[in-house]
Predict the structure of Alcohol dehydrogenase catalytic domain-containing protein.
Amino acid sequence: MDALVIHSAGDLRVEDVVTPEVLAHQLRVKVRYGGICGSDLHYYQHGGFGTVRVKEPMVLGHEVAGVIEEVGSEADGFAIGERIAISPSRPCGACRFCQQGLQNHCLDMRYFGSAMRMPHVQGAFRREIVVEAAQAFKLANSVSDKEGAMAEPLAVALHAVRRAGPLLGKKVLVTGCGPIGALVVVAARRAGASTIVVTDMGDYPLRSALKVGADRALNMALQPDALAEFAVDKGQFDVLFEASGNERALRGAFDALAPRGIIVQVGLGGEMTLPINAIVAKEFDLRGTFRFHEEFGIAVELLNKGLVDVKPLISATVPYRDAGRAFALAADRTQAMKVLLDFE
């Protein structure tokens, strides 16, 4: 069946990939939609990110939803024709981190569409895929396949919000309003944040963040000192989610963050130089966040119950055979948040 295979930077091909036999605890799924993630863009534009490089042909993609076409003999609880969101995460379950409940730090993780290990873990941008039953989460009739493909980035945001601790009544700042930053707004609002202010360098992502629950949106390109009003009395925000991966965004938010504020670094970029004196003097708590585990199931449950709305973040749907145009659109932050590939 057709799949989108990356060979090197800019070399993305539609190729016929063999679908493996379905084993006892597995499902064969017809993929309907897949979301283009920032990591997919890095593979497409640069051949990788940091030290992670494409060293062999690899099927891209890890944000997908589809319909079950075949059920393994021991994949209890599933039926042909059921629609599912697919978690791209396959922790081993046996290493010390999995045993501690830290499956996102698994020592033998297999994550769809990842070149972090050799051989690479093939991804889900394909018309047909075989997955473990444990990776499948049923979608309610009220949830579209397109929304189901948003479960993975929503899970990333939910994990980031969980890393911040209780948010009930908290004042939250989110710097960087790409898809993950906007979904952090969704998750933080659901967690009870009383005020959410977002910053970005572009109007389109800021407008999108307002649609999903932000109270105020500040364009730092037009108003570089926009956070100054929040710096009074040692800072007004309780929690900062830094989702841009940009050092200037992180450092620029320190004055607006109150003493003992919590910083959750969500975005990945280059190495940063931080003002350690400020972190010490204001007793900031700096926390990282990486992927997710049980939050994927939570994301699907929130979608199924209609407790969150991700539809405003879906900017466009493009046929998979026109992947070049889809990736170019996904990289254009003036007109796109999440771009989905249509595998029908």
